[in-house]
Amino acid sequence: MHEKVIVILAVLFVLMGKAEFTNHTANVKCAELFKCSITNGVSMTCDTLQLITIPKCTENIEKLIIRSGVIERLYNFDFPQALNTLEILAVKNVYLKKIDKMTFENLKNLVDLDLSENFLRTIDPELLINNVHLERLNFSSNMIRKLVANQFPLPNLKTLDLSNCNLELVDETAFLNTTALQWLNLRTNKLRTLSFQVNATAILLNNNPWNCDCYVYWSIKQYTTDENFESSTCMDPERNQLRIWNDTNLSDTICEDEIRQNANKSKKDKNAREDNAPDLIITIYGYVFVALSALICMCCCCDKPKRKVSSCS
Ligand SMILES: *[C@@H]1O[C@H](CO)[C@@H](O)[C@H](O)[C@H]1NC(C)=O
Ligand SMILES: *[C@@H]1O[C@H](CO)[C@@H](O)[C@H](O)[C@H]1NC(C)=O
Ligand SMILES: *[C@@H]1O[C@H](CO)[C@@H](O)[C@H](O)[C@H]1NC(C)=O
Ligand SMILES: *[C@@H]1O[C@H](CO)[C@@H](O)[C@H](O)[C@H]1NC(C)=O
Ligand SMILES: *[C@@H]1O[C@H](CO)[C@@H](O)[C@H](O)[C@H]1NC(C)=O
Ligand SMILES: *[C@@H]1O[C@H](CO)[C@@H](O)[C@H](O)[C@H]1NC(C)=O
Ligand SMILES: *[C@@H]1O[C@H](CO)[C@@H](O)[C@H](O)[C@H]1NC(C)=O
């Protein structure tokens, strides 16, 4: 009996020991090789300018932060299966231009991804399709001109930073499957207008070259949680160029009037078109009538001499 207990205790002890003192020698050596720093054997940070590739000698690490170097492309094989423990990954400020479509496929436990301060031009909507646990995503300071439909199909994404990206176009359904989104930063882009479906409770939109007409004013006012959005500068239309929202005549009352008037105007136009319809019918009938009369007249005129001739003969 006692022997059994001792054996069980011994097994437990060995198991616990193994779990607690995992051998991270490989990671420590890897960090040394690439001149990165490492803490607890699972958290590696690389600040070295010479880095030109993702260090591939690591395994079972949880956090990898690369903050400088020249890594222009990420390849499909850069993050092997051994890194599926990774929860936090940053590859920022490394002149990154291209990411192969399957690059992050193995990172099933990724929660936080930072690709900011690079030269990315597009985001493939399928790039992160396997990273369903992603909660934070940072593309700030890239060159992404547009967001396409269903751009971020990530059910757990809460925080998305797309500030300073040269964004000109956001598809109306870009965030359709980003249903958990809470915080969205679109500041400092090239947006002139915006209309999309999103449930986020914080949407930052300041510092975009807005087209300051009533419709854009209203939609921005409805979306944004930026406190001082009225200090944004307008680039359009010409009459409002370089004014700030507050100096334009886009107060709520004026906009309400304008929108109502426009509604009335289009209604009137529609009514007018409908009113015109009977007129048109009358006009057509008129033309047909004139044409028929002319025809009958001509027939009569042509027939008369004939009849005369016949009556004469
Ligand atoms: C840890 O792993 C390395 C090889 O990766 C090995 O040389 C070393 O003996 C191991 N240390 C322990 C305590 O198991
Ligand atoms: C995203 O990255 C930028 C630049 O590295 C940083 O300033 C910003 O705070 C980050 N955003 C979030 C939400 O962490
Ligand atoms: C997005 O959500 C719709 C339903 O809302 C679903 O039919 C579609 O498959 C989803 N797309 C992706 C890429 O997850
Ligand atoms: C917004 O929330 C509603 C209700 O939770 C949900 O049905 C809808 O799909 C969400 N829309 C978007 C764009 O996230
Ligand atoms: C814009 O006007 C509102 C109310 O008229 C005012 O509260 C706000 O301080 C003004 N903002 C700026 C930046 O002038
Ligand atoms: C605002 O409207 C008033 C009259 O409604 C007009 O006198 C003024 O010039 C307008 N200001 C601007 C900046 O368009
Ligand atoms: C628009 O039309 C409604 C009735 O259809 C009228 O009550 C309203 O005064 C009109 N508004 C303007 C601004 O002409």
Automatic annotation (TrEMBL):
<protein>
    <submittedName>
        <fullName>Uncharacterized protein</fullName>
    </submittedName>
</protein>
<keyword id="KW-1133">Transmembrane helix</keyword>
<feature type="signal peptide">
    <location>
        <begin position="1"/>
        <end position="21"/>
    </location>
</feature>
<keyword id="KW-0472">Membrane</keyword>
<dbReference type="InterPro" id="IPR032675">
    <property type="entry name" value="LRR_dom_sf"/>
</dbReference>
<dbReference type="InterPro" id="IPR003591">
    <property type="entry name" value="Leu-rich_rpt_typical-subtyp"/>
</dbReference>
<dbReference type="Pfam" id="PF13855">
    <property type="entry name" value="LRR_8"/>
</dbReference>
<keyword id="KW-0677">Repeat</keyword>
<keyword id="KW-0732">Signal</keyword>
<keyword id="KW-0812">Transmembrane</keyword>
<feature type="transmembrane region" description="Helical">
    <location>
        <begin position="280"/>
        <end position="301"/>
    </location>
</feature>
<dbReference type="InterPro" id="IPR001611">
    <property type="entry name" value="Leu-rich_rpt"/>
</dbReference>
<keyword id="KW-0433">Leucine-rich repeat</keyword>
